[in-house]
Design a protein that fits this description.
Mean pLDDT: 88
Strand content: 15-25%
Distance between the termini: 48 Å
CATH architecture of the largest domain: 2-Layer Sandwich
Number of helices: 15
Number of strands: 12
Order of helices and strands: HEHEEHHEHEEHEHEHHHHHEHEEHEH
Radius of gyration: 22 Å
CATH topology of the largest domain: Alpha-Beta Plaits
Strand order of the largest sheet: 5-6-1-7-8
Helix content: 25-40%
Structural class: alpha+beta
Number of domains: 4
Oligomer: single chain
CATH superfamily of the largest domain: Reverse transcriptase/Diguanylate cyclase domain
Largest sheet: 5 strands, mixed
CATH class of the largest domain: Alpha Beta
Length: about 375
């Protein structure tokens, strides 16, 4: 493997990059167990316990029963009758996240947070003089435990895709290193459902075509991939070979921001739905204003009482500059959907396509979304 291929860089023959992906272990639930001794060793779910509640995070004890984030609370309780629900404390989670990021910056100039509980670090330049990325990852994990009382898992490799896969290998509290030359073989042992960026719909399509693992995907040539997956062919071809050209970016441009709200009682009337839309738009605009973000695309998300979810989007030719304009676009999206065929249990709004931004789209911070539940 050439240096260029190993590092995932195009063009010049550059040195192999050293990337660490750090992922906190069951972050929200672990914070609650840390702060409340009575919860330690017990199945814990962060989220609402009501009939309309949703699990935001689950402890490892709860995960043994199949409890997962985004699962309806009533389903989680059915699967784990002893499950203990704890309301989220996002201010606490954010404070701890800032503390952890400060640790990261002692070891890397390039730190790319993905959410409150995970981040990429580029340690190609040995800022702390520890001699290796593995030693750096080991020390970061030790400091996180010592300074926060929480555990983190880490993956070390030559690109972001493999580092993220590696961090999930030995959870919780694990460290996995995939060196150059071993990446393709590692990727090909994994289920395609482990690949970041391949969602349930694409995974189901792949499995219908006989692709279950990275090895199955690697066996398909570019022409076959293009015939079945169109513009995603090159990306999938690279994933199966452990190739990822993305760099760690300290200040990634804002792609989208949003909010959503789950309701205790289903919304049935137009008045109720419009009032809920106005509330969520106000929250989203407050966030956009704080970031001085002016977007052109509004996406409306509705989840019906049977958990079927629809999304509708509308783009305007000018950046949205105030809350009233955001609501007006939201109302325009909502109008053709009314009257609704059944009750609405969740309503969400996302603003994207910001000024100066490329057309790529990225999911909003889960912490921002969950803070409205």
């Amino acid at each position: 493997m050439s240096k260029t291929e190993a590092s995932g860089d195009k063009g010049a023959d550059l040195p192999v990059r050293k990337i660490i992906h750090v992922d906190m272990d069951a972050f929200y639930a672990s914070v609650e167990q840390r702060d409340n001794r009575a919860l330690r060793g017990k199945p814990v779910a962060v989220g609402g316990s009501s009939r309309r509640g949703v699990v935001a995070a689950a402890s490892y004890e709860a995960r043994k029963f199949g409890v997962r984030s985004a699962m309806p609370s009533i389903t989680a309780k059915r699967q784990c009758p002893d499950l203990i629900f704890v309301p989220p404390r996002f201010d606490v989670y954010r404070e701890i996240s800032h503390q952890i990021r400060a640790i990261f910056r002692d070891y890397a100039d390039e730190v790319e947070p993905l959410s409150l509980d995970e981040a990429y670090l580029d340690v190609t330049r040995d800022k702390a003089g520890l001699g290796s990325a593995t030693a750096t990852a080991r020390l970061i994990r030790l400091r996180i435990r010592a300074e926060t009382g929480l555990t983190a898992s880490a993956g070390v490799s030559y690109n972001k895709f493999i580092a993220k896969l590696a961090s999930d290998q030995k959870k919780p509290d694990g460290l996995t290193v995939i060196p150059p030359g071993k990446g393709a073989a590692f990727v090909q042992t994994l289920s395609i459902r482990r690949f970041h960026g391949i969602g349930p719909v694409t995974a189901a399509k792949m499995e219908g075509l006989g692709i279950f693992s990275g090895a199955d995907l690697a066996a398909k040539d570019m022409a076959w991939l293009a015939a079945h997956f169109g513009n995603s062919a090159e990306w999938l071809h690279n994933l199966a070979r452990g190739i990822d050209h993305r760099r760690v970016r300290s200040n990634r441009p804002l792609k989208s921001l949003g909010g959503e709200r789950t309701f205790f009682n289903d919304l049935a009337t137009e008045t109720e739905i419009r009032e809920a839309l106005a509330h969520v738009c106000t929250v989203v605009w407050d966030r956009a204003a704080k970031k001085q973000a002016r977007g052109r695309t509004v996406t409306l998300k509705l989840r019906y009482s049977d958990f079927r979810t629809i999304t509708r989007a509308k783009s305007v030719p000018f950046p949205i500059g105030d809350g009233a304009s955001l609501l007006a676009v939201g109302e325009a999206i909502l109008a053709p959907i009314l009257p609704v065929e059944q009750g609405i249990r969740l309503l969400g709004v996302t603003l994207s396509k910001f000024e100066g931004e490329e057309d790529a789209k990225e999911a909003a911070d889960p912490a921002d979304l969950l803070s409205l539940i």
